[in-house]
Amino acid sequence: MTWYSPSPVARDLAPDLVTGWTARIEGTHRLVPDGCVDVLWIDNGRIVVCGPETAAWSFRLPRGTEAVGVRFRPGRAGAVLGFDTADVRDRRIPLEDALGGRAQRLLSERLGDAAPAARAGILEEHVRRWLADAPAQDDATAAVASMLARDPATTVAGLAAATGLSERQLHRRCTAAFGYGPATLRRILRLQRFLGIARHPAAPVDLARLAAAAGYTDQPYLSRDCRAIAGSSPRELIGR
């Protein structure tokens, strides 16, 4: 995505953030769910919290729109921003709905007055303040995110056994932290694993081998998830 530039976050923020990013946006773009929550500033002054998605979604902004954002790791944003993540699933909300009007106003003013090169650091500075007042992530959901990152084929029963919870208890806590249950998170992370493998320069070109490497039982299973989550075939998704 030539309009979008990811950047590493400060080391002390890495346990909570996947990445920072800047963008110069033009036209329509389509994004695939990744289990994360983004907080982004747009140069019209808006600051938006993008909740976790269950399916790909498209957005359009005027030519030359500038934006800067941070991406929270799966399960972390709710504790930091003070909401039940299920309440923002498939939604984009103003930051003030989570942290209040003062937090939105202060950050918007600072970012609007800053040089483009300084904006990422300013946003990270504010995230650091939010983290100072935030509780730690729930141990069980942190373990789920870690296990699924290592092996997206881990079953819900396996996750429940590893965390010492019943499947019902696990579903309730995952829904509050991730916005949906562990089975949905597993599907989304497995599709992202497929994309990461497929876009590597040394990746096999055979879809069946790619599907197996990503943790799918077979290629048709991969195709069904691509259609359901990304709205396209595996080949179309890789190309996009």
UniProtKB/TrEMBL annotation:
Pfam families: DUF6597, HTH_18. Signal peptide: none annotated. InterPro entries: AraC_XylS_family_regulators, DUF6597, HTH_AraC. The keyword Transcription applies. Gene3D superfamilies: Homeodomain-like. Residues 138-240 form the HTH araC/xylS-type domain. Keywords: DNA-binding, Transcription, Transcription regulation. It comes from the Bacteria. This is Helix-turn-helix domain-containing protein.
